[in-house]
Amino acid sequence: MPLPVHSDSVSQQGYLSNRLNSLINYRKERGLYRSRRIVASPQSTNLTVDKASLLNFCSNDYLGLANDSRVKAACKRGIDTWGVGAGASHLVCGHTSAHHELEEALADFLTRESVLLFSSGYAANVGVINGLLGEGDCVFQDRLNHASLLDGGWISRAEHHWYEHKDYSDLEEGLIRSQGNGEEKTKERIQLVVSDGVFSMDGDECDLVKIVETAKKHSASVMIDDAHGIGCVGHGGTGIIDPNKITTKDVPILVGTLGKAFGTAGAFVAGDKALIDFLVQRARNYIYSTAMPSAIAVASLKSLEIVKDESWRREKLQDNIQYFHQCLSQLDGLKDNSSIIFPALITASKTAIQPIILGCAERASRLSQKLESNGILVSAIRPPTVPPQTSRLRITLNTMHSFQDIDRLFDILSENLS
Ligand SMILES: *Cc1c(COP(=O)(O)O)cnc(C)c1O
Collapsing DSSP states into helix, strand and coil, what is residue 24? Predict the structure, then answer.
């Protein structure tokens, strides 16, 4: 093929830019444009943005560990011991005893045989699903699952089934339908039911007992992504899997992240030895990606210790959630205002994630801007992150918020929600 002449490539460039600008303008006109804030301070209840101090209600640092002095000291120690970069993938020469120790500690914490670290939750979900499934297999996903779970499903080329959010009879219909498609192949193929543990944009929890029951009935396996649960909910912060109701065999694949409640970075999958061993062979983004820095593993190990030892962090978070609900129920005119939905009141989200659903994207953006001009940071979540007409403010609470902080949020909300 002849090389393109210079002027052609210039006009190609021009064409691409014009096309991109028109797509960007389309988003701007509809309140869908996304931009990044430049933060000039560490994670905390107060963030410095453009020299202003903003009260932060949008971080996933639920237990206040991202800037904890002990976690920071561990990370520095880790750098002194290991340097910065891991240098290679885990399978080449990047897997250190720091990674290994963290994997074993996490496995012990979650009473699983084995754990495998990934450099992010996104990578873990894509790696696990794409590693396990291929053509002929089937994946069943809650419609509100995290984007990384959906992407893992698409990439794997497995047959993809959606079920309506937490509608497990819809899941069952899907399982029955797919078995009809597969006929003689049913026995060999893997059927994987995948769900968020705590849904990231709504804060509600999946009904794990129902998922397990339904999956068992049709010989399907279950994978739970408990990114927002582990550390925050459950006995000792072990997440939404309640060992009194569910065994580890019922949920053979459990994913958790380190970037949220643990305040560091990276993620992991927990399961039995066969699962982890298989993923080491097959998860492409594990195999072909540089290992997380060892210092991050050292820091995460310290976080895990704190997560286990300091249950007051979870208790304080729960107190904040209760106080938030109390403020919500006192918000004037709320019940008469049918154009605002507070799922927190309806589903009583027990988690740190408390959405206020406002409908159209412009409305959510406007309220978010209004809050920001009053010194409060709450992000507006818009399509495609959430379904059309469910744009929302996503308020996240954390251990470090005081009741006064929550009062301040409600002062501004009540002035602007009519
Ligand atoms: C944040 C999140 C992820 C991604 O984790 P990262 O470590 O941030 O890549 C995966 N699943 C869910 C449900 C999440 O909320």
Answer: helix
